[in-house]
Amino acid sequence: MTTLPFGRALCAMVTPFTPDGALDLDGAAVLAERLVSGGCDGLVLNGTTGESPTTSDAEKSALIGAVRAAVGEGPALLAGVGTADTAHSAQLARQAEGAGADGLLLVSPYYSRPPQDALEEHFRAVADATGLPVMLYDIPGRTGVRIETATLLRLAEHPRVAAVKDCAYDLLGTQKLLAESDLAVYTGCDEYVLATYAIGCAGYVGTVANVVPGHFRAIVDAFDARDTERAARLQREAVPLIEAMMSSGLPGAVTAKALLSDLGLPAGPVRAPLRAASAGVTADLRKRYEALTAA
What's the predicted TM-score (pTM) here? Predict the structure, then answer.
């Protein structure tokens, strides 16, 4: 990659809440500063891990403003604006631009499962709503619809479609996209960070990075330094924590908040319908975290 529109190391940041469930802007500022100082080039706000379905439009805007004030102009801030409604998504895009976002994360409309031509039209309409660059978000396991590679290749011609967050678990499709477009592809799967970076992806948008931002930054730094042995070792060392946080049957927002809270960092509760992790799950997360950070 010669062009990195949002850097290499991005975190899909949780949205901290107070104990009574209100938006915790002070906590968000503290967490954002920790992530940036830990090596994150950019932060994705109001995404899946940020519990975007349960935050209001006003809360989304306030979060962007608070994080921008905390981290300054250096790190890239991407704002999740995708909804099941094209008009609402475009409205959120304009709101995010006004609040200080550097880019937009645009997930496929969920539940309605539009065909590919309608999906493409939706993305173009939202991309045309602002002057900000767009990262499309392909996560069919949650949305129920895949952004097919052919659709992504057509959308790559749009002047503001700059990147893709790839959570489709289709390595062949990823390689085709890299070979046939100039899109910056970021894996959204923590277990794929090194594998996809090695074949030319721009970097990652990680959930586990909420708790160990420096570890994942060290993986791509080691690879860039041509220390592939160290990069591979670091990726393997992260597997137990990745598995516990991302493959335990609980959403990443739940496990990330449980571990952050256990570490005394801003996170707070999750909002219903999500439920807090059990004490046993939290203890296992802490054990794996300590093993990784002691390595």
Answer: 0.96
Q: Is 224 exposed, middle or buried (0-12, 13-18, 19+ CB in 10 A)?
A: exposed
> Could you tell me if 281 and 250 are in contact, meaning their C-beta atoms sit under 8 angstroms apart?
yes
Listed residue (234, 192, 241) closest to 217, CA to CA: 234
Locate tokens 């509760």: which residue? 269
Of 137, 186, 204, 289, the catalytic one is 137
Rg (CA), the chain: 18
Q: Mean pLDDT per segment of 10 residues, for the chain of length 295 residues?
A: 82 98 98 98 97 98 98 97 97 98 97 96 98 97 95 98 97 96 97 98 98 98 98 98 95 98 98 97 98 94
Q: Is 205 annotated as a binding residue?
A: yes
- The active-site residue, picked from 165, 186, 197, 204, is 165
pLDDT of 295: 80
User: What one-character DSSP code corresponds to residue 83?
Assistant: -
Q: Active-site residue 137, yes or no?
A: yes
Angle between helices 228-246 and 252-262 (to 10 degrees): 100
H-state helical runs in the chain: 25-37, 57-71, 86-99, 116-127, 140-143, 149-155, 171-180, 193-198, 213-224, 228-246, 252-262, 279-294
Query: Is residue 186 among the annotated active site residues?
Result: no
Residue 77 CB-density burial (10 A; 0-12 exposed, 13-18 middle, 19+ buried): buried
Q: Do the bridges between strand 161-166 and strand 134-138 make them parallel or antiparallel, or are there none, so unpaired?
A: parallel
Which pLDDT score is estimated for 225? 98
Rounded to whole angstroms, how far apart are CA atoms 164 and 161?
8
Q: Which of 216, 97, 82 shows the shortest CA–CA distance to 139?
A: 82
At 1 the pLDDT is 45
